[in-house]
Design goal:
Blueprint lengths: L9 E4 L2 E4 L1 H15 L4 H10 L13 H9 L15 H7 L13 H9 E3 L7 E4 L5 E4 L10 E2 H17 L17 H14 L6 H19 L4 H14 L4 H7 E6 L5 E5 L4 E2 L1
Parallel strand pairs: 3-7
Antiparallel strand pairs: 1-2, 4-5, 5-6, 7-8, 8-9
Helix pairs in contact: 1-4, 7-8
Length: 275
């Protein structure tokens, strides 16, 4: 593997180093997030989740890479590299006592950080600390055209969907129906054998009984789907017993997606999409 010979955030052009448009934005975001209270480990996860490469031949990040960016004085300029980060920002990032403490994550927010995605591009939504100190949910690909979504707004939209599901539990029913039933070649073979035995002048009762039971077993196998029917029953039971809330959300939701207009879509644990 080749090592980077040019400091991350820059490119070489016209016999000199200049800020690389995309990489310099990443450097600035790293400083902004760190000063805002995001840990180095969380920054690494964000970089790797969003698919931002460290270099052309190394796609993933680690904590050492982020730490070096946060502590490298070359980003404030004065040498062969032009300034990307202000001296004030650099000093704040390197004085732990000046770093704003991150707002404690609740269990709900920890769960949402794993389950919230952009409906358009499929990337995980990123919970970013804004200049006013609040946190908002955004798509780093800028698919969502509405304003960044506040924690409370996102949770309230999900609770509204759960309330609708409680009022209409039939909407989460499994899609498997009798129309999906089709005999396997083996089951059809048993049915043909039953018809042949019945047509005989003196059919053997024991043999016929054995073949019928085997045929029933094979027909039952044809009815078995991926198991979502049982999951759907569990989800329906949970909806009937629990009020809309975080516990219900965890029990029935597999994925939360926000579309370009800021509307929430739920994917349930039985694979059912609920808009």
């Amino acid at each position: 593997m080749k090592l980077r010979t040019i400091l991350y955030g820059y490119t070489f052009q016209n016999a000199g180093y200049i800020p690389d448009p995309s990489e310099s934005n990443v450097v600035q975001s790293i400083y902004s997030e760190y000063i805002g209270g995001t840990t180095i480990a969380e920054i690494v996860k964000w970089l790797n989740t969003t698919g931002i490469p460290y270099s052309s031949d190394k796609k993933t990040w680690n904590k050492n890479m982020v730490y070096r960016i946060l502590t490298d004085t070359r980003y404030i300029g004065g040498g062969i590299y032009p300034q990307i980060i202000s001296k004030e920002l650099f000093e704040r990032a390197n004085k732990k006592e000046n770093i704003a403490k991150q707002e404690p994550l609740t269990d709900e927010l920890r769960w949402l950080k794993q389950k919230a995605f952009c409906h358009a591009c499929g990337k995980q939504l990123y919970r970013r600390r804004m200049k006013d100190g609040s946190y908002r949910w955004i798509c780093l690909n800028k698919c969502i055209k509405s304003k960044p979504i506040r924690d409370l707004d996102l949770q309230n939209m999900i609770l509204e969907k759960l309330s609708l599901l409680k009022d209409h539990p039939e909407s989460i029913a499994d899609d498997f129906t009798v129309e999906d039933f089709s005999l396997s070649p083996e089951a059809r073979k048993y049915e043909n054998e039953i018809e042949r035995l019945i047509s005989e002048p003196n059919p053997s009762y024991q043999l016929l009984k054995s073949v019928v039971l085997d045929c029933v077993s094979k027909r039952y196998d044809c009815c078995v789907n991926s198991g979502t029917y049982e999951i759907s029953k569990e989800l329906t039971a949970a909806l009937s017993k629990e009020p809309p809330g975080f516990d219900l959300m965890k029990k029935i939701c597999e994925k939360i997606a926000v579309d370009e207009n800021g509307e929430v879509h739920l994917t349930l644990k039985n694979g059912k999409d609920c808009i």
